[in-house]
Structure to design on (80 residues):
């Protein structure tokens, strides 16, 4: 998970207020859960409602990063 957190920390528009808890502006945007041997990210892809994504494997983590970047771009352009 450490490499994933480092990559999330490098994304403009996200601020990590506590370890693994990321905000966009003043609103919680992404945080993590553990369920058994699996890791999950809850992320507000639409800016309003949390969606859960499994992030246990490297490919799932890459998918999260792509999805987060796309969501932030969409949310930023909608605000302009």
């Amino acid at each position: 998970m450490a490499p994933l957190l480092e990559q999330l920390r490098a994304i403009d528009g996200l601020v990590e207020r506590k370890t693994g808890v990321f905000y966009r502006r003043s609103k919680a945007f992404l945080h993590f859960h553990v369920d058994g041997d699996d890791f999950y990210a809850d992320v507000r892809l639409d800016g309003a409602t949390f969606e859960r994504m499994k992030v246990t494997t490297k490919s799932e983590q890459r998918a999260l990063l792509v999805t987060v970047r796309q969501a932030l771009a969409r949310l930023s352009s909608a605000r302009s």
The longest helix spans residues 58-79. The chain has one domain: 2-75. Residues 2-75 form one domain.
